[in-house]
Design goal:
about 35 residues, mainly alpha, about 95% helix, about 0% strand
C-alpha cells in the first residue's frame, strides 16, 4: 500500500512540474511579445 501512495505522489509531482514548466514557458513567451 505504501508503494501505491508513493506512486500517486510521484504522478502528482510530475503533473505539477509539467504544469509549472508550461506556465513558465508561456509567461516567457508572453513577455517577449
Amino acid at each position: 500500500m505504501e508503494s501505491e501512495d508513493r506512486k500517486e505522489l510521484e504522478t502528482l509531482l510530475d503533473i505539477v512540474i509539467t504544469l509549472d514548466l508550461f506556465l513558465i514557458t508561456t509567461f516567457q513567451l508572453e513577455s517577449y511579445f
